[in-house]
Amino acid sequence: MEKWQKLCLISELSIQKTLDCGQCFRWEETDGVWRGAAFGRTLRLAERGDTVETDAPEADLPLWREYFDLGTGYAEIAKRVASGEFMTAAAEFSAGLRILRQEPWEALCSFIVSQCNNIPRIKKIIAELCRLFGDPLGGGMYAFPAARTLAGLSEADLAPLRSGYRAKYIIEAAKAAADGGLDLDALREADCGDALRELMRLPGVGLKVASCAALFGLRQYDAFPVDTWVKKALREYFPPDFDHRVFSPWAGVAQQYMFYYIRHLQSKN
């Protein structure tokens, strides 16, 4: 018999908002149950009553609490970034959304795949990458392949992914991460600007990809990725000279609130 147990309260974590806001690509929902993988483990989550429940074993609960950033006080962060009518509404609408603490290499590789791409296609490419080169985890799921695994591949090896020009960037990033030229763990402790500059030394990694990798993989909460949705929010609700550093040191959280809320507003039009 399956054993499910409490991970946290629903007031602390919205599964849908957190896993369906463009920061990760390996989670799917079926009949109210979310299933995905991270750190070489699989997980199922569901909202039941006032709690978020999981099928994770007791020993893995600290890892998943870390992954969902449950130790960070988002209620206080929301108060700090809720300045002005738009951001106040965005923070309120996004309550329960948290920044995932993803494995750094997976986040970097995933956002290299994401450039000039749409979410369904990103998910398809990453699923195939894991199926072909990741270790099986059971139930048809696979671990994200290590950098050292992808570093030894050629663009021809990645052809089945249909990732196009991104294949060479995946391999170059994997080589840098595998041989120590890019120390992702060290970048967690670096100044956000320094981390971004180091990531942008990689071929094919511009400011947007670097900012996503820093925010979602390096715990650099001040990174501020600007995609088409955030551009729209900035254009329509902020002055031309707006500087996102007013949200420091939580600019990345503010960005996610912007992103999630502006998509909601657009869907109503």
Show the helix and strand layout.
Layout (H helix, E strand, L loop, with lengths): L4 E5 L5 H5 L8 E3 L2 E6 L2 E8 L2 E4 L6 H7 L6 H8 L3 H9 L10 H11 L4 H15 L2 E3 L2 E2 L4 H5 L14 H13 L5 H6 L2 H8 L7 H11 L10 H10 L13 H18 L1
Antiparallel strand pairs: 1-5, 2-3, 3-4, 4-5, 6-7
Helix pairs in contact: 4-13, 5-8, 5-11, 10-11, 12-13
Q: Characteristics of this structure?
A:
single chain; 269 residues; alpha+beta; Endonuclease Iii, domain 2; 13 helices; Endonuclease III, domain 1; 47% helix
Can you describe this structure?
It is a single chain. With 269 residues, this protein is an alpha+beta fold. It has three domains: 5-71, TATA-Binding Protein (2-Layer Sandwich); 74-94 and 221-269, Endonuclease Iii, domain 2 (Orthogonal Bundle); 104-217, Endonuclease III, domain 1 (Orthogonal Bundle), CATH 1.10.340. It is built from 13 helices and seven strands. The chain has helices at 15-19, 61-67, 74-81, 85-93, 104-114, 119-133, 147-151, 166-178, 184-189, 192-199, 207-217, 228-237, 251-268; strands spanning 5-9, 28-30, 33-38, 41-48, 51-54, 136-138, 141-142. It has a five-stranded antiparallel β-sheet with strand order 1-5-4-3-2, with helices on one face. A two-stranded antiparallel sheet has the order 6-7. The longest helix is centred in the last third of the chain and has 18 residues, at 251-268. The protein is globular. The termini are far apart.
